[in-house]
Write a structure and sequence with these properties.
Radius of gyration: 18 Å
Order of helices and strands: EHEHEHHEHEEHEEEHEEHEHH
Shape: globular
Strand content: 15-25%
Low-confidence stretches: none
Largest sheet: 6 strands, parallel
Mean pLDDT: 97
Number of domains: 1
Number of strands: 12
Strand order of the largest sheet: 2-1-3-4-5-10
CATH class: Alpha Beta
CATH topology: Rossmann fold
Distance between the termini: 34 Å
Helix content: 40-55%
């Protein structure tokens, strides 16, 4: 039986990933939370990886603004610890799927970033995640996979969609930025895509390297907020557009985070569906917290 290790299983994506994997009867899955496995501990990592065929790492420092104040701490988790996982996989022959981010790009493009686009992060979080990507690609050139995602929402943990639903009950109108473009991605659909990639990787059907795990299509945060209101039967005109300079934050955000999906097709896998259909499914299922 194929043996899989999931790290970061207490997070939004990790919980969905564990659920998708455990619904399968042909896999042996060990799902570890931060309390179970400290990925910054090399000895613990080596022991945890042993005996597994593939490692899916969803553990991460996710506090973007916090990383700006403590880049060393963020890099210890998102870069150095990922390198430890990759070394452990290299030593045992296990494959590895590392979840990364659109923040490795500068956000100054005008068309979707292909998987091989030049990286140039504009904040500490992006730099820390890029360090993890580079470690996987260097240490696991034939068995390492990087899946970049963005604008995640889901059932387990704080996220933009959940915030919009809460604010819809508290305020008559909302001002939402309309000058950042991206691809809202349901964490459960991403989890399913990661499992499909794991299957293809283990079968030798998917080449190692970078894949983009975001929903198809694109919108702005304002457009996403209006879609949430409309799908809930609320008046979308209660959402008003504004600009990012109205909401200064410690870490700069990329203005354009739209990613291309060509490598899925090369692996005979479909990219994720359009963000609108996934959002409708998530809301209908009550899977947005």
């Amino acid at each position: 039986m194929t043996r899989l290790l999931v790290t970061g299983a207490g997070g939004m994506l990790g919980r969905d990933l564990s659920a998708v994997l455990r619904a399968r009867g042909d896999l042996s899955v060990r799902a570890t939370t931060r309390a179970d496995l400290d990925i910054t501990d090399p000895d613990a990592v080596q022991a945890a990886v042993a005996g597994h065929d593939l490692v899916l790492n969803t553990a991460a420092w996710t506090d973007v603004d916090g990383a700006e104040a403590d880049e060393e701490g963020a890099t210890a988790v998102n870069g150095d610890a990922v390198a430890q996982l990759a070394r452990a996989c290299a030593a045992t022959g296990a494959r590895m799927i590392q979840v990364s981010t659109d923040y490795v790009f500068a956000g100054d493009a005008t068309e979707p970033y292909p998987e091989d686009a030049i990286t140039s992060p504009v904040n500490a979080y992006g730099r820390s995640k890029l360090a993890g990507e580079l470690a996987v690609r260097k240490l696991l050139p034939d068995t390492g996979y990087v899946v970049r995602t963005a604008w995640l929402y889901g059932e387990h943990g704080p996220n933009f969609v959940a915030t919009m639903l809460r604010l819809a009950e508290e305020r008559e109108s909302l001002d939402v930025v309309d000058d950042q473009r991206g691809q809202p991605t349901w964490s459960y659909r991403l989890a399913e895509q990661l499992v499909a990639l794991a299957d293809a990787a283990l079968a030798g059907h998917a080449a190692p390297g970078v894949y983009h795990g975001t929903a198809s299509g694109e919108t702005t945060w304002y457009g996403l907020a209006r879609a949430v209101f409309a799908l809930r039967g609320l008046d979308p005109d209660r959402v008003r557009p504004t600009t990012s300079d109205r909401y200064r934050r410690p870490a700069p955000r990329p203005a354009y985070s739209v990613l291309g999906h060509d490598r899925w097709r090369a692996a005979n896998l479909r990219p994720l569906a359009d963000w609108r259909s996934a959002l409708a499914d998530a809301l209908a299922a009550g899977r947005t917290r």
